[in-house]
Amino acid sequence: MTASDDMLARVRMRGDRALARTTLAPGATFDEVVRAVEDAVGIRIRVIAETDTATWGTLTGFLVSFPDRREGTIHVRAADARVYREFAASHELGHLLDDAHCCGAVHERSSVSPHTNPDLDTAQVEAELVAEHVAHAIARLMYASPRVAELSW
Question: What is the pLDDT of residue 102?
Fold first, then answer.
């Protein structure tokens, strides 16, 4: 097994463990996802669709967490399609389920590989991959049910 295989195995394990902290079931709505994460991490979470994102560049969302106040906010781009905003927010929820990396300040991390941005360390790349794994798992839960298909008719 290569170092890359080891890292991907750790990412899957951490992502699965993070998602297992919730009581999510197939067919969950996005609001139910947010409530389940709130229950799992013990904080109130608000998702805010931001309209003034001209300076965001390629950033699609970010998390600000205030553990001392037991609350957090997830900021996404209002101009993005609803499903994309929910996916970006789910990525941030993945960070909350995996670790408590934010302490009232925005921590900028990037999902690019260390080969593209050598300033990122392995722990940062792993944290991004875990959050992405959780976001994909949430999407599978939300959209894998016939109920979702029926709602789109």
Answer: 43
104 CB-side CA count, 13 A: 5
Task: Outline where the chain has alpha helix (H).
Answer: 3-20, 30-41, 82-98, 122-143, 146-151
d(CA 141, CA 26): 4
Residue-wise pLDDT for 37-68, tens only, equals: 999 999 999 999 999 999 988 889 999 988 89
Distances (CA, A) of 151 to 29, 45, 143, 146: 11, 26, 11, 9
Q: What is the dihedral of CA 9, 10, 16, 21, to 10 degrees?
A: 170
The whole-model pTM stands at: 0.83
- What is the C-alpha to C-alpha distance for residues 37 and 87, in angstroms, rounded to an integer? 14
Ramachandran area for residue 129 (φ above 0: left; ψ -120 to 50: alpha; else beta): alpha
Using DSSP's 3-state secondary structure scheme, residue 76 falls into strand
Query: Cβ of 61: how many Cβ atoms within 10 Å?
Result: 23
